[in-house]
Specification:
By secondary structure, the protein is α/β, with parallel strands linked by helices. 43% of the residues lie in helices and 9% in strands. Bound molecules: zinc ion.
Length: 274
């Protein structure tokens, strides 16, 4: 029997058994197919969300669902813009429908807690809407009791200030321009080094974008790299540090929001990590 925490690796019988014995907690990685400059792959957000989800699932005795690969439209002030080639996005209504459907599906499988682990800034509110619709629907079906509890998190919200100081040595440019920059590139160097080409990093100053949006997008406002800040300071060691600290903080937060799975999971954990 596979000991993998990833749903894609499991047969249906093992999946059902592990869901029942593993605290009934499912983590859904959510990414995007989005340009991340010349040095990172288009699926960077999916790869990072899935990797973080895997670490959390191992720590909590949970399962990782097959990821939501595509995400909501890239916006110029947070992801370079949806006009750039390679970036392949969903409409908001599709994103909402996917989040709603998956929450209902995992509830049908017997999950009692579903965590959406977001790796792409623009997804958040649409995931929220889909999850809100599903949890309300489930709660009505169960006569007001929570049919399923859901949690939404974007992993970078769990990077603390001390880690930022260590990684950026006082030159953190702000989350709004961290697209294809030091954070994502360092994490990728640590997790999927074969997919990073540091020789192709374009070392440009952070993007200076207005505090408003204009549509259609004025493409000249996006830096030529497609990234909003430089990845020149990225390193494997920074990636290791970021992953370790972030997953520890996230594990604690999920354990606090959903105390039961971590408390009742000694058996499941020993089965998953022999
Ligand atoms: Zn990204």
């Amino acid at each position: 029997m596979s000991t993998s925490v990833f749903m894609e690796d499991l047969d249906a019988f093992t999946y059902r058994e592990r869901l029942a014995t593993g605290g009934r907690l499912v983590i859904v990685p959510v990414g995007s197919v989005e340009q991340h400059g010349p040095h990172l792959p288009l699926t960077t957000d999916v790869l990072l969300a899935r990797a973080v989800s895997g670490r959390l699932a191992e720590a909590l005795g949970a399962l990782v669902a097959a990821p939501i690969v595509y995400g909501y439209k890239s916006q110029q002030r947070s992801g370079g813009g949806n006009h750039l080639g390679g970036t392949t996005s969903l409409d908001a209504t599709t994103m909402i429908a996917i989040a709603r459907s998956l929450t209902l599906e995992f509830a049908r499988h017997g999950a009692e807690r579903v965590v959406f682990l977001n790796g792409h800034f623009e997804n958040y509110q649409f995931l929220y809407e889909g999850v809100e619709l599903a949890t309300t629907e489930l709660s009505l079906r169960t006569g007001g009791g929570p049919g399923v509890e859901a949690m939404l998190v974007s992993y970078w919200d769990f990077v603390d200030d001390a880690t930022l100081d260590e990684v950026y040595a006082g030159s953190f440019p702000g989350w709004e321009v961290e697209h294809g920059g030091v954070l994502e590139t360092s994490l990728m160097l640590h997790l999927c080094p074969q997919l990073v080409d540091l020789g192709r990093v374009m070392d440009l100053p952070p993007a200076e974008l207005p505090r408003y949006d204009v549509l259609p997008v004025r493409s000249e406002l996006t830096p030529a790299s497609g990234c909003l800040s430089s990845a020149a300071r990225a390193s494997k060691e920074a990636g290791r540090l970021l992953l370790e600290r972030t997953t520890a903080a996230l594990t604690e937060a999920i354990g606090r929001a959903f105390p039961e799975p971590s408390r009742c999971n000694d058996v499941a954990l020993s089965e998953i990590n022999p």
